[in-house]
Specification:
The two termini are about 30 Å apart. The strands form five sheets. Strands 11, 12, 13, 14, 16, 18 and 19 form a seven-stranded antiparallel β-sheet that branches. Strands 15, 17, 20, 21, 22 and 23 form a six-stranded antiparallel β-sheet that branches. The protein is globular and about 55 Å long. It is an alpha+beta fold. The chain contains seven helices and 23 strands. A hairpin with a 2-residue loop joins β9 and β10.
């Protein structure tokens, strides 16, 4: 039921209400939602009504209601997944419908962190949260610490998982973050109990900027249904001089699609360099037969370097959103980047820079029929 229908059935006593200003996060969320609705409505009379509603909501004050029964029914106002829709890594179109509301706030050392939502689909544990502080935390602050899941035992104690963070700065002191804890191996039970214990907030753009504290969240999640298709060797693959890429598995859930790949690269042959250190990075263009291109979150595994043995394989995976229901074919196009270390220090370390123009190799095309 709509929040407005709920309010229509309640008699409010203004003397029992407390006015509070909208936070920057809530204002941005409301503005974005109203704007998206205006774009999708076809009738001009609705344009005026929605625009007027957005003006009234954003310029007014929120009311903190003293009616517990109604308050329990009100939706969480801060949809973090929605706030990140302009990010190049946005893959969360279906997450809000399937995520579990958490709504837990922990404060330590002047930093308040609220875990809003989480979802577990067997491929990842994804947590949406906000960070608020009066201190400057930089451009990309995230909560760092340990993820402990009782049902996993010690299978992820040292490896078998990956981290990915998507950060949106909402105001000078408020941030929206989505944390993707990638499950790369091991068993995936149907229900899990999570203890997420953070011990510092670190700026990913400046790792030396760090604030220590104690933020611990505990919650339970149920696994979403998923379907996995494994492929035989060389069933769907592509190759070029010095490069072999193969599709090994495809998993689809109600909120995501994950493509598993195998990469074998001869870095010397690809870079045409016999002495100096060279690295090869493979990015991908993911599209379907309808012409739609998909954003994705990329786990690169070990990657490729002349430090490795020539037979070394890397096993990356790509997580994107649910494929278009009308699509029948997925096209996976590898994009090859050849890199070197620029101005290496005494240990040979330094930033990677390209040594030639990136190029594509022949695409892999695979049927994507869920039935």
């Amino acid at each position: 039921m709509s929040i407005f229908k709920e309010l229509n059935n309640v008699k409010l006593n203004v003397s029992e209400s407390e006015e509070k200003p909208l936070s920057a996060l809530e204002q941005k969320r409301i503005q974005k939602k109203i704007f998206n609705k205006i774009l999708t409505k076809k009738k001009k009379k609705n344009y005026f009504l929605l625009a007027a509603a957005s003006f009234i909501v954003i310029t007014s004050l929120t009311i903190s209601l003293t009616f517990p029964a109604l308050a329990a029914k009100l939706p969480i106002i801060s949809n973090i997944f929605e706030l990140l829709s302009n990010n190049e890594y946005y893959v969360f179109e279906e997450y809000d419908e399937y995520s579990t509301d958490i709504g837990i706030t922990e404060e330590s050392n002047g930093i308040s962190i609220t875990a809003n939502n989480a979802v577990y689909d067997g491929e990842n544990i994804t947590i949406a949260y906000t960070i608020t502080s009066e201190e400057d935390l930089g451009e990309r602050p995230v909560l760092e610490g340990n993820m402990v899941v009782d049902e996993f035992g010690d299978q992820y104690e040292y490896n078998g998982f990956g981290h990915n963070f998507i950060v949106e700065k909402i105001s000078d002191h408020e941030y929206a973050v989505v944390y993707i804890y990638q499950l790369l191996k091991g068993t995936k039970p149907d229900a899990i109990k999570v203890t997420w214990a953070g011990d510092s907030v670190r700026n990913l753009n400046n790792v030396e900027q760090e604030t220590f504290g104690d933020w611990t969240f505990q919650f339970s999640l149920n696994k979403l249904d998923n379907k996995t298709k494994k492929y035989a060797a060389n069933e769907f693959s592509t190759e070029d001089e010095g490069i072999e890429v193969e599709l090994t598995k495809l998993t689809q859930t109600p909120i995501s699609s994950t493509v598993y790949l195998s990469e074998l690269v001869n870095e010397r042959l690809v870079s045409q360099e016999e002495e100096e250190m060279r690295g090869v990075q493979i990015e991908y263009l993911i599209s379907d037969n309808l012409g739609k291109e998909y954003n994705y979150v990329h786990y690169r595994d070990t990657g490729h370097s002349t430090d490795f043995d020539v037979n070394h394989k890397s096993y990356p995976r790509i997580t994107t959103t649910v494929f278009d229901e009308a699509a029948t074919t997925l096209t996976i196009t590898p994009i090859v980047h050849v890199m070197k270390v620029d101005n290496p220090n005494s240990k040979g370390e330094g930033p990677l820079v390209p040594v030639m123009e990136p190029y594509t190799i022949e695409s892999i095309q695979v049927p994507i029929n869920k039935n």
